[in-house]
Amino acid sequence: MDELYHGIKKYDDNFILNVWAPKIKNMQLHLLDKNKKIIMHDAPYGFKSAVFPGHFGEKYKIIADGVEIPDPASRFQPEGINGPSQIINPDYNFIHNKWRVYDMNDTIIEEIHIGTFTKYGTYKDAEEKLEHFEDMGINTLEIMPLSQFYGTRNWGYDGVFPYAPAFSYGTPDELKHFIDRAHEYNINVMLDVVYNHVGPLGNILPLLGPYFSDQHKNPWGPTFNFDGPFSDPVRAFILQNVIYWINEYKFDGLRLDAIHSIYDSSPVNIIKEISLIAKQFGEKHNRKIKIVAETDKNDSSLVKSVKNCGYGLDAHWNDDFHHSIFTYLSGENAGYYSDYGGPEHIIRCLKYGYDYNGVYSNYLHKVRGTVFKNMPKNRLIVCDSNHDQIGNRAFGERPLKILGDKKFKFFAGMIILSPFTPMLFQGEEYGEVSPFLFFVDPPDKKFAESVFNGRKSEFSDFSWSQDVPNPADIKTFINSKLTWNESDMYVNYYKTLISLRKKYVSEKYKLYMPEKNVIKIGYENASVYFSLSEKDVKINGHGIIYTTSKNNIINKFDILIKLN
Question: pTM of the predicted model, to two decimals?
C-alpha cells in the first residue's frame, strides 16, 4: 500500500505529496505561505508526485490542469471545503499508551455528535463530559462522522475529505487530546466512517480520476470504484484511511456506515479487507481494534470469522430489535415499520438474533435476511434510539417524548438487559428531551431549498406533517443541542440497568415464555423477566434483586430480575 500512498508525508528532511490523478496532464503544488509553485511529476499507477521543503502548519493547494483545488487526501481544511489544505504533524505526544479495551460482551456504547453534544460543540468542550460516562458505566463512545463537509454544521455523512476532521469542531491535535483523555478514563472511542459515498458539494475526486463507479449506483451520491478498472488506487485510498484513524488518532475502532450500499465484486470484498488490515494492525501493535458496521441486510456472514468464510467484523447494527419493540410500544406501522408490530417479532429477535432471518418481508416484497446461528448475540448492536431513528423523523422526537415514561424505561431495559450489545444515543441516559433534527449549513438558497424539499419527500411513507423544521435554519441546529438538564430519576435508572448488565448478562442464555407475552431470559446467574402481558403475572419471589413492579407481580411493561 506504500506505493499507492495518498497525501503528504515526511520524507527525510523534506515532504512528499502524492495525488492520484490519472485524468490530469499537468499538476503543480502551490505552497501558499511562500506563494511558490512546484511541478509535480508523473509517478506509477497514475499518481503525480513532488518532493519539497516545507513545514508543519503550512497551507497549500494543488493546480490540476489550471484548476486550483485542495488536496483530495488533505489532513485538515482549516477554512472548509474550498479553502487550502494544511500540512499536519502526524506525531502527537499521547500521554496514555495503555488503556482498557472492551470485548463485545463488555461493551456499552453511546453514539454522540460532537457539534450538538455540548453548547459549543467542540472536542475541548466534550472532554468535560468524560467523567459523566465513567460515572454512568458507559465505556465506549461512537462519534458520528468527522470528515470535512460543506459549511460548519452537518450530521457528517456529507463529508468530501475523508482524511480531514471537520474544522468547526477543533484542530486535529484537539481531537487527539480528546481521545487521549477518554483513554485516561478507560473509555474506548470509535469513529463512524462513510465509505459508501461522498457529499454533494466540494467533491473534487471526479476531476482527478475514476474514483467512483460507473456500474453501481447509490441513493446518496457517487459510490467508490472498488472493483472496476483503476480500482486499486481507490481501494488504497480507503484502506489507508482505515489505518490513518486508528494509528494517528488512536481510535479504538470504526463503525462503517451503510455497507449495504458499498458495492464490490472483487475476489476479496473491501469490507473483508478493511476487517483484515485492522486486525493485522492491532496484532502488530498489541491493540484490539473493533470494526462494526451498519447494514439492513441481516447478513450473518458479516460477523463470521474469515476462516469460516465470513467477513470477520466484530458486530453490526441490528435494526430488527429496535423496530420490533418500538412498533409494539408506539403503535406506529407506516413505512418499514409495517413489517413489525406484535410481541412475536420481539421474541423472534431474542431467539434467533434477527426477526427477518430468511423470511418474507411484506414491505420489501421479498425474502430478507439469513440465519444467525451458533454465534454470540453480542455481535449484534441494538438501541432504543440512534441518529437515524430520531433524526429521520420529521420533528426529531426522542422515544421518551413519543412513548412516555413507563414505556421508555421498559424499552431501555429491554435494550440494556438483552444478550445483544447495547448502544445509547447522546443524552437518553439522563432523560434529555431536546430533539435531534436533520441540519445542514448550505452555501446558497437554491441548494437549501433542494435539501428541504428532498427532506420532506422522504416522509411520504409516513403520516408525519409536511410542516417540518428547515434543515438550513440555524435554529434547527441549535434546538438539536443537548441541554444537559439531567434528571436524577433517569440517571439512577440507567446506572442501575448498566450495573445489572455488567453483573448478570452473559453470553450464554436460554429463552422462556412462562406466561403468554412474558419473556424470560435465563442467564447463568440471573433471570430477567419482561412483561408484555395485559394481565398481572406473579413471579416467584425468591431471590428478587430488581423490579419495576410492586409485590413481585408484573404487569405490562414491567421488568423483574431474580437470581437463578
Answer: 0.97
